[in-house]
UniProtKB/TrEMBL annotation:
Transmembrane segments: 6-28, 49-70, 82-105, 117-135, 147-166, 178-197, 203-220, 227-246, 252-275, 300-320
Pfam families: Glycos_transf_4, MraY_sig1
Sequence positions that bind Mg(2+): N171, D231
Molecular function terms from GO: metal ion binding; phospho-N-acetylmuramoyl-pentapeptide-transferase activity; UDP-N-acetylmuramoyl-L-alanyl-D-glutamyl-meso-2,6-diaminopimelyl-D-alanyl-D-alanine:undecaprenyl-phosphate transferase activity
Cofactor(s), names only, from the UniProt record: Mg(2+)
Catalytic function, reaction form: UDP-N-acetyl-alpha-D-muramoyl-L-alanyl-gamma-D-glutamyl-meso-2,6-diaminopimeloyl-D-alanyl-D-alanine + di-trans,octa-cis-undecaprenyl phosphate = di-trans,octa-cis-undecaprenyl diphospho-N-acetyl-alpha-D-muramoyl-L-alanyl-D-glutamyl-meso-2,6-diaminopimeloyl-D-alanyl-D-alanine + UMP
Protein's membrane topology: Multi-pass membrane protein
Protein name: Phospho-N-acetylmuramoyl-pentapeptide-transferase
């Protein structure tokens, strides 16, 4: 397999998204699938109310089609391909239900936290079941060292922690036009490089299909956004990046490559702990991207800065794995 296959996969996913978007966006608008904006959010976001959401459906369709078409043409599909698609579509379906409740049933908070957690746990457990059946290693390596340890049966706890925590972390990052699409493209691009370096071409193909799909989506999601991906897209991307990290056996490296997602999550945790213990807020608002908005940064400046930080994290992750 050569680099042309990678470019073909990314290009196919990109084109599918770009072609679908002008069809889907008016359709979502006619169905009145518009985003409701929280009153406690930044005031500048109120003008975004009514922007079509659930655009993550376009990402799911394009990455799935590109992955299946390319794997069918150039190599035999593997169990890992199906595992990746299962987690991605599974979390996407969970996000779709959440979006549907918010938009159609007019319950702004969507699924309850317990309902969402139950869905996330179920998908994680099914993933572990098939993971175990195919005899994938439960050894975890420490990036940049020769040290590793075998978790054995306890690996299921790592899978649950990563899939639940990772999908929520990526979901928190989806707060500004183009923010998640750009940072996700960078993170998946890094894992595509590492999977290719390992000779795991099926995972590399899936990863670049995601890159192409989210870049195609970014054409319509960049500021000012014509469509939002919603939880349909953000939960799917969160589940997908974690599944890729697990199947490439680069679990811990995700904390570096997905550094932006980690920082966004930590900002929420710090804010909640600080307010509950001292009554004071560390940030103007969390997640962190809202803090920078409220201190006067333009939305586009925040997004581009976070993309740059994400790129630095991705380069660092590749450097640690390949050259250290």
């Amino acid at each position: 397999m050569n680099e042309k296959v990678i470019l073909f996969t990314a290009g196919l996913a990109f084109i599918i998204t770009v072609v679908l978007s002008p069809i889907f966006i008016p359709f979502l608008r006619r169905l009145k699938f518009g985003q409701s904006i929280r009153e406690e959010g930044p005031k500048s976001h109120q003008k975004k109310s009514g922007t079509p959401t659930m655009g993550g459906l376009m990402i799911l369709i394009s990455l799935s089609v590109a992955t299946l078409v390319v794997s069918d043409i150039f190599f035999e599909r593997t169990a890992q391909t199906y595992l990746l698609l299962f987690v991605t579509v599974g979390y996407g379906l969970l996000g779709f239900i959440d979006d549907f409740i918010k938009v159609v049933m007019k319950r702004n908070l969507g699924l309850t936290s317990k309902q969402k957690l139950a869905g996330q746990l179920l998908i994680a457990l099914v993933f572990y079941f098939f993971f175990q059946r195919h005899g994938i290693s439960t050894v975890v390596a420490i990036p940049g060292t020769d040290y590793s340890f075998d978790l054995g049966v306890a690996y299921v706890l790592l899978i649950i922690f990563m899939l639940v925590g990772g999908s929520n972390a990526v979901n928190l990052t989806d707060g500004l036009d183009g923010l998640l699409a750009g940072t996700a493209a960078i993170a998946f691009g890094a894992y595509a490089v590492l999977a290719w370096n390992q000779g795991q071409y099926d995972i590399a193909i899936f990863s670049v299909a995601v890159v192409g799909a989210v870049l195609g989506f970014l054409v319509f999601n960049a500021h000012p956004a014509k469509v939002f991906m919603g939880d349909t897209g953000s939960l799917a991307l969160g589940g997908a990046i974690v599944a890729v990290a697990i199947l490439t056996k680069l679990e811990i490296l995700l904390a570096i490559i997905g550094g932006v997602f980690v920082i966004e999550t930590l900002s929420v945790i710090i804010q909640v702990i600080s307010f509950k213990t001292t009554g004071k807020r560390v940030f103007r608002m969390s997640p962190l991207h809202h803090h920078y908005e409220l201190i006067g940064w333009s939305e586009w400046r925040v997004v581009v800065t976070f993309w740059a930080v994400g790129l630095l994290f991705a380069i660092l992750g590749i450097y640690i794995e390949v050259w250290v």
